[in-house]
Fold these 4 entries.
Entry 1:
Amino acid sequence: MPSDDGRTSIPRTPAPRAASGRAGPNRMSQAARSWAERGLVPTVIPYGYRQVPGERGRLAIHEPEAAVVRLAFRLRADGASCAAIAETLNARALPKANGKPWLPSRVRHMLENSLYRGTIIFGRTRHLIGEDGRRTVVPLPRAEWLVSDVPDLRIVDPRVGARADAVGDPGRPAAPGPGAP
């Protein structure tokens, strides 16, 4: 059905359920949890890492990008805002993996990613699909999270990470840090 701007919209249909015999949200979550339990990364490969060739889910540190991650954490630990960090990375021509400029929101996402500290946290949220086909993200209690230490994937020194976590962003509530929902 055409919309006001001339584009065609497609009615949303509910995602397949596990009961249909197809891989529904629950089976996907179980598979991802299994990966995390084995120290594999069950999500998009974060900046600073590359997949180990031939080993699905296993990552290795990509040193040129890891240096950028360390710089961002050091700047944050020294009190820089996410906007100031993004400006610095862009001024030094340190592009993201996709070649686009850094935005404060991407910097914030990086600073909140527990993998840079050598920890995989899986199961902070659950995605539910309503009868209308809309996805809802529901935070889960900490007791249900799966936390796996992966020290070989630690990019940021723990002391620098702790100092970076202690810095608040002006005009924004303090980030909950890597262990919060």
Entry 2:
Amino acid sequence: MLKSFYVSLLNNQSTNQPVNQSTSQRYIDLTNQQKKKLFPGKLSKEGEKMFVDLGVQAAISIISHSVFIIITWRALQSIRFDVLFKKHKVFEVRLFMVILTIVIASVLSHFFLDLLNWSQQLLYLF
């Protein structure tokens, strides 16, 4: 599908056509100069830095969400939710605890990540 999109860009055709043998064949028949326009090769230093920054931000987000889920789960273990539910509803109590843990941890993690991003953006103020 991606190849047909690039081929249609070069040929000024509609991008809604399905990938078929003729589209693939047209991609293979492109000249090297046309392929270099589609795939310019190495990224610039700024482009590489941007991808590294995105990767670091993704790793920090995953770690933050995981840590806050663990902390919230431990904190919710001390609360007796079984008194809020009917007797013999163990599955429902556990499901409620899991959902509540994810909601609370997500809110806390987003707050922490927003605070981290805002503190990094303060550098642009001065």
Entry 3:
Amino acid sequence: MNARERKRFLFCLGLSVAIGALMALTYVSRLPPYTAIQGQQNLFNDTFLFKTRADDQAGKVSLVHIDEKSITAFRTQYGRPFSWPRTIHAQVLRNLADAGARAVVYDVLFDAPGCPASAGPSCAEDAEFAAAIDYARGRPAGGTAVILALAGASGETVNQGQPLTFNDTIPPIPALATRATALAHIHPFPDTDGTVRRMPLITSLQGREVPALALQGAASYLRRHDKAVEGKDAGAIYFGGRPIPVDANFMAIINYQGQPSHVPGVSGPVSHSIVRGRVQQYVRQGCRQGQARLCRPHSYWLRRRLAGAYVEP
């Protein structure tokens, strides 16, 4: 190599190092070019990681739909699902418990009383739902775990090395929260294009770390109700003695995209073959074609967690 070739080589090497350093800096510091870079990364992930797996049927997770059929049937009598009496939810929970469900995970907020304010402090509908939770948890062979959802409110922040953080929280009403096996957060973390590719496995709500519905559902399936998170460090959350790969904000990549039918659904009469021994995720509405990863991130991550399938961030 003569002097001219050596000079050209060193120039190209230095330019490559400088470009690599700049790209790394924009990624770590979330500088303006990061958005465009992240878009290319998302395109790569969607092409090579998030492929539909038609033969991959859920074996340990089922969805309990408040679907269009149910909404139509109850619209005249009860109106929208938010106004349905809690006695309906109570009966569904009893049916699932009788069918042998191992856990029921509510992707629905019960943050307000089920009766109007004029009914006073005592609400018969909430009492019936609370009694159904007690009934489910008291069933034989360890009972049916009941996990209720809570949400963060105001002051959402995402700082490097910290989980998704909220200054305030929206919990279930005390009459239900005190009866539940556990509480878990419902927050997905959609990208700028609206697609959910990552799941915050923990969030900080008013200074308290709360596991995701999916993570708590997996813990309750394994009868580890109070051990959803055994520990954490840079790049991993530990559960069941194993590390779950996460990014710097303790978010796991969802490595599955499929049609809604890939998670068995419970709508209408309860089928023991679909319910027994499974985690039942109680969802407000079914997903439309092509929206599976957007509106069911908890169920898809949960099923991959129980299968031990992860993607490194």
Entry 4:
Amino acid sequence: MAGQRSASCSGATAAGQGLGTRCAPQSGRRRCGAVLFEVILALALLVAAAAVIGGGLTAGIHSVERLRLTAHAMDLAVTVMSELQMAQAAVRPGEPQPFGPPFEDWSWEVILRPMEGAASAEGSVTLIEVVIRHKAPPFVYRLTYPLPSSTGGAMPQSAEGTGTTP
């Protein structure tokens, strides 16, 4: 009896000499097959759970990056608009301007266009749009101020800003 294997699927010998990998004939095969199926099923569930968790982490990282780019672009757009208000930056419509270090990946552009249907008794209204672009990853942010022509260069405080990924 010392050298015989038990009928269980664990493969332990009757003498307790360690674990084997074979099952006893007939009665243990079904049991060993069921255990193998359970192990494979558990591994498949583990892989599926890891894929779902990995996908969630990737989506979260991309959202944080997009939020960081939006906040940075918003700050740069407000800075450019403020410089335009104080006449510290030259308005060259349609001509992209690079930012200096440490913002080499960023550029800005000013677009001037008349506001449709906004003519008042004082004159027409011009929309000043500051477009901020990031090279890699590609990202565009737009900040628009309406400017009545009678204000003499002072811009109102209301603004609209939008960030997009092309």
